[in-house]
Amino acid sequence: MSTSKVAVIVGSLRRESYTRKIARCLIECAPATLQMEFVEIGELPLYNQDFDDEKRPPAEWTKFRDRVNDMHAVLFATAEYNRSVPGVLKNAIDVGSRPYGKSVWNGKPCAVVSVSPGAIGGFGANHHLRQSLVFLNMPALQHEAYVGGVDKLLAPDGSIAKPETREFLAKLMTKFAAWVERNTQVQTGGVQQSGSI
Q1: Which of 121, 141, 157, 183 could form a disulfide with 111 if both were Cys (CB 3.0 to 4.6 A apart)?
Q2: Taking the model in full, what pTM does it have?
Q3: What are phi and psi of 83, to 5 degrees?
Q4: Which domain holds residue 94?
């Protein structure tokens, strides 16, 4: 069984982010077939199509696009802001989807984990993100993963405090590894997309 490189993208910038702590736990639980790497999004300038049209994309965009393009799959871990994805994550998705016809997301298998102190575990963010993933031609693992009440699930050092939570995350990563193996394909260029940003 081959090893797949997986970009871990965290939709939260807070220093003590629950989402990042859960992402670290997911990395620890991942099977050896997944080589998990954080790809940071906090320094990406807001997307403006003029920069691509004028062939002067910011260096941060180019670095991000190259990094994601080199990955086989993506794990999205997101917080929920106002029943949707945080702006920083939506911006990263937009940056990666352009320039037109050269999306770095195209065809990459992915999984979505939403995290919240609230009871419904970021349900709104999870499904808003999935709507974008359909358009981006990213086969998303059809295993719903909402981590609610996260503030009560973590120990002071950021580790998982409850064995059943760790078991849930480990099962998710096992399913994700199988999903990546099944859906990984050689990338041959971006999907043609309509519209402008």
Answers
A1: 141
A2: 0.92
A3: 65, 25
A4: 4-183
